[in-house]
Every structure is written in structure tokens, then in C-alpha cells.
Amino acid sequence: MARWTTADDAVSGIRRLAERQLRTAWQKLPAEQRKKLRQSIHPADAAKVKRTVSTLASAGALSAVPVQKPVIAISVIVEDSTQNVVATLKSILAQKSAPLEVVVLDTTGDDRIAGGVAPYVQRDGRITFRSEEGLSTPAARQLAVANATTRWVMSLTAGDILAAGAVAAAIRSLKASGAELAVGTVGVRKGQKFVTPVDQSALHGTENLTTTLKHSPDLAGDAYLSNKVFSRSFWLEELAGVDTDGALWQAEVVRTAYLRAATIDLLPGRISDVIGDAGSDSLTREQLCSTEILAEYLQRMTRVMAEAAGWSSPDLTDRWLTRLLGSDLFPFYEVVPRTDDSYWSVLVHGTQELAALGSIAWDDVRLHNRLILAAVLDDNRTDVITICGSRSDLGSSFATAFRQGALLAQPPYLAELTRRPSEELLTCQDVDLRVTSKITGLDWNDDGSLRVTGHAYIPSIDPVAGALAIEAAVIDPDGVEIQTLGVERYREPGIDWDANDNWTSYADSGFTATIDPATLLAADSTTSSWSLKLRLKAYDRVLESAVTRRETAGAAGTVPIAPMVGERRVALEFKPRTGLTLVRVAPMYSATAVQLEGRTLTITVEAHSAPLASKITVECAKLAIRKTAVCVDVRGNVADYRLVVPRLAAEASPRTEHQWDLRLDSGFKTPQPIAWRPGSAAFEHDLDRSRRLRLRLTGYGFLALEERRYRVEADDLTVSADGRYLTVLGTADFTSIHAPRLVLSSGKSVIEADQVSLNVTRNQGSNRFTVRFPLVSTPWDGQELMPEAGAYSVRYIPQKTEDNAGYWIPAAPSLQASLPSRELRDTLEVGLSRTAA
Fold first, then answer.
1. pLDDT at 61 (0 to 100)
2. Does 445 lie in the same domain as 410?
3. Which end of the chain is more exposed for a tag (fewer CB within 10 A), N or C?
4. Are the C-beta atoms of 455 and 509 separated by less than 8 Å?
């Protein structure tokens, strides 16, 4: 034991021991944990570091041996050496509050897989690795479950990413309900993002639900594995007997699980983002054209349907059968023109065998699908080929005729069919008709009402011939109509460009409706939001729908903010399910005066439903910069604050719009934002929006700040009458007093400006510039030529920057308002893009 003679020696010795132990602990941390700790060190919030350290220490991830007995075993099956098993492992290890064990089964035998997993196996006792080269994927999944010793199991494919907290949520639900199976939603790749399919969102709702297949038959459409947690005993007793030979085992085993589970937990949250999971039943063109794959699919689905017919209700059996024949088998129908007679024989025989197990609900099958299905059951290959060959040209739209009280479909291939379908098959059903609507303009009137402009129609029904009527209403979250709106109609030929139909015009489907938010706020103090519902009537049909689409070009792409009514306001937002939604906003604080001089912000705030705040804080979370100032004056429920906004850090990217959050801290609740009392129109008019550091409004009307390294914006653009020149006027705020270098760039060629001027009127802030681009060139003094065809963007080129690395020029709100869509000059088209700056 160390001995110290003085208190100073004791303190120094203790400090040295602590530092040595800390260095040792730091060196033992894995590289990714050290990186995570470095990123979490926020100079303005030391508590964040403490929470991270506490979480890392309690999660057991740093221990070589699991701290708690695992309750769930997660298997990761590697089917291909290109799959990212490391990403899957990282998402599993990030799960909190769920004692687990992980087994990675590699069926490829690739040494790179073992090498990538080895570091995780060495430092985390919860992970094991097994090489099972040559083993099929179904057999590998069965092996992992058989070797597990936990109560619950989960089977992933390498590459799938678990959502944060997904495992813990599933375990909590299963513990509470005792169900055999928990099912969450999945994220499916769409571009660069993962989105939840609409049918899954509608099925799972917003709260946990314990259900059965009888009450939730639409579960049949979800054949994923990575979004499910199974009871191990249920898997071994009910699913181990499913034939593992073949490529389509998962399609059968998941549907069998639905059938045999006594209860199923439906979870509203996302469980995983699927990359390797084969649950979408998506087969390649080669697989779809394979007679062996078709025969296996029909054989497996026949077994499932035979079991369903044996114990479930006739209604459930019919719904499953209708979905299988009318939707799931459709990819196999489509490739009939590419296949031989043996393929057709297998398809007809298997389809007829399935149809004999129940009744088909023809009204629930879409028009083209039911005509193809009827031809398949009738062994009419010629008509199947005719319909499949025509569908690619007309999509989901078709002509209709109203005869003898029935709305009959008139698809273009009808005359070419060898056997004319019955009128029952041609009669348009509810599944064939839908509402297509779009909002093209939102404006707040002087009286505080909201004017909504848009169009709505029913594809396949001519608005004039069908006497289309449009009604609108504001509804609450329960669907109760709160306010019936007056609707005016107008004609707009441009609607047909959006409709992209080839047999009729929807130009007469334009409408405008006016909403009075003051009435909504006065009539009810508890409802938090309302949405817009349309009701369309044509012929004998009535359809209702929310308006979920909106124009995003030019002025129509902006969502205006209304002035406050007393201490409240109604904000607008668009939601995937309810479309245009009016949200009640009741801020605790509102600004009565705001002034931003350079980097000094002076603001006068009125308190509504909270005590006056003693501090005001501005924070750029991305750069970890925070500044706090105290109140400088108080007058009743009004206070003045003055704050100097810190400068951006040196590493701040010049391409990024850095956001500064503005909050008041009274100690009453969490720090609160400050509302802007007037609307967005007054905000644009009263405040200088051309500076590098400027105020901005959030969607709910709260104040914030945004800053760029330098700000160059276009305020106006004109094309000369002869089409030879494009002139851009705008503002520039940067440190240089030289005129900015702007070019027209298409990625392949660059058009230099022939006239550039900067009108310097102040040293601090923005100055106006004018740039003219020649659109006609005369190479070699010959014939005048227009630029090469393509899309050209106006770009700002900073000093020492290549032309192809320039920055987009954002369009100021004034330009968006003056150029809402397009300005045409013969072969030249000038417009605004909604691409992020």
C-alpha cells in the first residue's frame, strides 16, 4: 500500500493512480467505443458524457462475459459473401435493456466473413460464430433455433439492420401478452432511405395490439422474418416440420406461423430495415420464368391453403385465397408470354387446384388482375398474353362507360380478346376506383382564413360525363366532420400534365376551398389537429380521401405560416396518412420585437402560460456550440434579452446551412421555443433575409437562426425578349468585395457570364449583384448556336474552386413567389428546383 507523508503527496498519488487506471481502461476499449465517446463529448453539456458513460458501462457490451442471462437468441445467416454482416452485428449490439446472445452462421465458407466477425467474437462473449459451408438457408435457421436455449428467438439475414430499441419493445410485449409471435413493421429501401410500406402502417396502427389471424387477415401480405420475434417452443413444435428443401421455404413458414399461432402481438414500431430478407416474395425474372420455382410455390401455397381451409372460418379462407390468386400469383401470370407450354400447364393446374379450396371474392381483385385470373382458370392462354402485353402501356387507368346503371370498364384490349368477359367481371368495383388529388396552392387571406387550391378526380371517370362533384370538410382525428367547406370549381388544362392519362381530360377537376381556423380554435380546446377530407361523387359512385399530395415547385412548394390568434395559432403540415393537417400550436412565449444586428440578437418576449425565463440560449447542436445570456429587463410578463451569437467553428462546411436553436429556460419545464406573432409574409417583409446569419421560422412558427459561410441568393431572373440573354439579380454576403463568379453549369459544359457587377453599399451584410449570361454563341465566327440541350444550374464558384465543384444558388422567397412554375422562351425553359441548396 502506498504511503504519503503530506496531504499534497496523498492528493498527487491518488491523482496518478486514477490517471493510470483511466488510461488502462481507455486502452482496453474497442476502437468504435472510443470513437463513440469522443463524439459524445459536448463542451456545453457535460451531462451527455455522463449518460453515455453510464449507458456503456451498464450495457455489458465491454465485458467478455454476458452480465445477465440472455432471454433471446438472435441468429444472423450469411447467404452471400457480399452481405454486410458487420452492419447487422452493430445494430444488434446497439440494442439496450435486452439480454441477448448472437450466433452468426456462415453458409458461404468465405474466410472474409470469419475475419470480419472475429473481432466481435473475441471481445464480446454474447457472440459466437459457426461456419456451415454448403448448408441451405432454411436448414441454417432451423439449426440456430434448435441450438438456442433462450425463451425467444429471432432470425436475421446478414445486412438487415435492427431499429434502436426494437428487441426490448418486442420482449416487453411478449412478456405481457404471452403470445407466440411478435410482429413489427419493416423499412424497405426507397432511394437512399428506408420507408415503411403503407399497408403495414395501416395494419399495425399506433399502439400495441394482441390479435389473431382471424381478426387481422392482412398479415398474410407480410412474409418477412427479420421483423418477427418467435417463442422458441412455438417454432420447434409448430414450424420445424415445414419442408426446408427448395428456395421458397420462407413464404410457407411465415404463413404457417400466422395460421398456427394462438395469439400474435402487432407492434406499431419498426423492427428492422430489410436488405437481405427475402420476405417481399420478390423473385428475379429468371426465377419467375422457372417451371420448378412455379411448381414449388404452388405446392407450398396449396399446403398452406389446405390447412387454412381445414380449421379457419370460410370468410378467412376466402380472403386468403383471393389475395393469393388475385395478387400474389400475379408476377407468374405476367411472364406467361415468355414461357413454354409446360409452364402454362403447371400454372393452370395449380391455380385450378387452389381455386377449388374456397370461393374467390372477385370484387376484391383489381380489373386487370381479375380478367387475367379468369382467363387462367379458363385455360385461355391467348387472352392472358393479350392482356399482359397491353398492361404496360396503360398502367392502372382505363376507359369506362355507364350503361343501364352499371359503370363498365372498357380496357383497350377488350376487342382483341377471344372470349369477351362477362359484365360482372367488367363492372368497376370499389377496388378499381380511387381518388387522385393534389394541393397546388396554400394562401392565408387577410381575414385569417386559409385558401386551399388544388384538383381532385377519379381516374377512369370523365369529370364532365360523370358530372363530378367535389365536397370538402375538416375532420378531427376520429373522422368526425367539424367544418363543412364551401368549394368553388375551376378549369385548368395543366392538370392533364399531372394526370398523364391517354383517354380523357381531367382539366375540369380543379377546386378551391376556404378554411376558417378561428372557428376551429374557438369551438374546441382539446383537439390537437384537424385534417382535410374530400368527397367525390360521379355517376353512382361516392369516394372519400385525404389530400396527401402537394405541388413542390416554386411558390406552391412553400407552406405559409399564419399569424397568431390571441395566444394560439394553426400551423400546416403534411402527413402520410391524413395529408393536409392543421395543427393547434399554443406557445408559452411569443416575441413582440426582434432585432438582429450583425451577430447581436435583441428580443422582447411576452410570457403566456409559463413564468418569465431567466436565461436565453442559442445552440448549434451539429457543431456543439452553445451560448447563454441572462434577461436584461423585466416589465410584468414581458422581458428583454440580448445575446451575441457565437461564430461558426473553423471546420464548419461552406455547403451546409447550419441551424441555431433558440430557447428560453425558466426552470418550469424543458427549455421552450419562442413564437413569432405575425405570419410568414410579415417575416419575409420585415426582416433582412439576405445575410449569412439570419432569422428563420420553423414550420410551427417558432424563431430560430440559420447561417452559411457565405450566402448568395437569386432574387430575380429574366430572359431577354429575343431569348439571347439570361439575367440574374441577387444578393451576396461574404467577406470579399469582389463580384461573385457565377456560371451556368450542366455538368458537361459551363457558360461563363459576360457581365458581372456588385453594388457595394455596406461592409457588413449583403450587397446586390447582377449577372448576365449569353445563351447564344458563335463559334469560329459562324452560325449562331444555342447551348447544348440539358439542365443548367446557376452556380457560385468561390476562389480556388473548380467549376464543377461550385455551389447551387438558392432562390429567395420573392423569386419563388414571382416564378411559381415555368417561364418559356421558345426552346428555353427557366424554372425553380426544390433541390436542397
1. 43
2. no
3. N
4. yes
**Beta-strand runs (E) in 178-263:** 181-190, 193-195, 209-211, 228-231
Please count the structural domains in the chain. Answer: 6
Name the residue among 244, 295, 274 with its Cα closest to residue 135.
Answer: 244
Please answer whether residues 289 and 335 qualify as being in contact, where contact means their C-beta atoms are separated by less than 8 angstroms: yes
Asked whether the whole model's pTM tops 0.90, one would answer no
Which backbone phi and psi does 359 adopt, to 5 degrees?
Answer: -105, 140
Please say which residue of 545, 577, 609 terminates a domain. 577
Over the stretch 184-193, which tens digit does the pLDDT of each residue have? Answer: 999 988 878 8
66: in domain: no
Same domain, 302 and 428: yes
Owner of C-alpha cell 369506362:
400
Encode pLDDT of 467-519 as tens digits: 999 999 999 988 889 999 999 999 988 888 878 777 888 999 999 999 998 88
Residue 279 covered by a domain: no
| 3-state DSSP assignment of residue 133 | coil
Which domain does 694 fall in, by range?
Answer: 587-707
Distance CA 253, CA 155 (A): 12
Residue type, 203: L
User: Exposure string (b/e) for 481-509, b if CB count within 10 Å is 16 or more?
Assistant: eebebebeeeebeebeeebebeebbbbbb
Pairing of strands 72-78, 152-157: parallel
Q: Are residues 421 and 316 in the same domain?
A: yes
| Cβ contacts of 358 within 8 Å, gap of 6 or more | 305, 309, 314, 317, 318, 320, 321
Q: Are residues 664 and 533 in the same domain?
A: no
- Looking at residue 748, its amino acid is K
DSSP secondary structure letter of residue 677 = S
CA-based radius of gyration for the chain: 32
- 582: in domain: no
- Regarding whether 609 and 538 lie in a shared domain, the answer is no
- Exposed/middle/buried for 693, CB within 10 Å: 0-12, 13-18, 19+? buried
Short-list 493, 445, 452, CA closest to 579: 452
Decide if 389 contacts 382 (C-beta within 8 A).
Answer: no
Is beta strand 625-635 parallel, antiparallel or unpaired with respect to 615-620?
A: antiparallel
- Residue 546 sits in a domain whose CATH number is 2.60.40
**146 close to 153: Cβ distance less than 8 angstroms:** no
Give the cell for residue 695: 432569422
Helix (H) or strand (E) holding 437: strand 436-444
CA distance from start to end of the chain: 64
Phi-psi group of 790: left, alpha or beta (phi > 0 → left; psi -120 to 50 → alpha; rest → beta): left
Q: Read off φ and ψ for residue 384, nearest 5 degrees.
A: -60, -45
**443 grid coordinates:** 394562401
Percent of the chain with pLDDT over 70: 90
The answer on 384 and 416 residing in a single domain is yes
Together in a domain, 488 and 564: yes
Does the pLDDT at position 545 exceed 70?
Answer: yes
Residue 770 sits in the same domain as residue 703: no
Dihedral of the CA atoms 210, 215, 220, 222 (nearest 10)?
Answer: -30
* Cell 445467416 sits on residue: 77
Cα separation, 73 vs 78, in Å, equals 16
pLDDT at 828: 53
Average pLDDT over residues 167-174: 94
Residues belonging to the chain: 837
Evaluate if residue 757 carries a pLDDT over 80. Answer: yes
Which of 432, 453, 487 finishes a domain?
432
As a whole number of angstroms, the distance between CA 494 and CA 459 comes to 16
Helix and strand totals (H; E) in the chain: 22, 41
Which of 12, 17, 52 shows the shortest CA–CA distance to 35? 52
804 near 745, Cβ under 8 Å?
A: yes
Residue 289 carries which side chain, given as an amino acid letter?
Answer: C
C-alpha grid cell for residue 581?
A: 393537417
